[in-house]
Design a protein that fits this description.
Blueprint (H helix, E strand, L loop, with lengths): L2 H40 L11 E8 L5 E8 L6 E9 L13 E2 L23 E8 L3 E11 L6 E11 L3
Length: about 170
């Protein structure tokens, strides 16, 4: 082999390995998403608010028979690390939707944290989150899962929130 050929072979090998790593990471994230989705869908004990953070939601009419829901999570009352959030429209179906639901921290390579009165986006410390989606229903029941770890990243906490929204004509 000459030197350029060795470099080409090495480049192909590195790209193949990184593609495998990306595929593995995507598969793991997809499996984790499906697990959280199923857990949230099956959760019957949802709260309407949280003592750990503020949660608000709105439903707005768009053009035609479509509606946009927005969920805002902010104002942390405790240190929350490695946050994951999933919002689903709960229609009672036990089949996971083909439509990707709004999420944070599940497919992201970056981790997110919220600390009371502290924001440093470059390091992953955010003020809050805004998640949204589109539905064809003028009245929806949203289920929100917020998962986070303690400051030592040992213990995981989960909060299940249920929100009923309607657009009044």
């Amino acid at each position: 082999y000459n030197v350029p050929m060795k470099r080409l072979v090495l480049l192909i090998l590195v790209l193949s390995l990184s593609a495998c790593a990306t595929t593995d990471r995507d598969a793991i994230a997809s499996d984790h998403y499906k697990t959280l989705y199923t857990e949230l869908l099956n959760e019957l004990d949802t709260a309407s608010s949280s003592v750990y953070f503020s949660v608000e939601a709105t439903l707005s009419a768009l053009d035609g028979a479509r509606y946009r829901y927005d969920v805002f999570i902010d104002e942390p009352q405790i240190a929350m690390y490695d946050i994951e959030i999933l919002v689903i429209v709960d229609d009672g179906s036990l089949v996971i939707s083909e439509t990707m639901m709004p999420s944070v921290g599940i497919f992201d390579e970056k981790t997110y944290h919220m600390l009371p009165y502290q924001v440093h986006p470059e390091k992953g410390f955010v003020k809050g989150f805004g998640l949204n989606g589109i539905t064809e229903q003028s009245s929806v029941k949203l289920k929100v899962l917020v998962s986070w770890k303690d400051v030592n990243r040992i213990e995981t906490f989960k909060q299940f929130i249920g929100i009923d929204l309607s657009v009044t004509p």
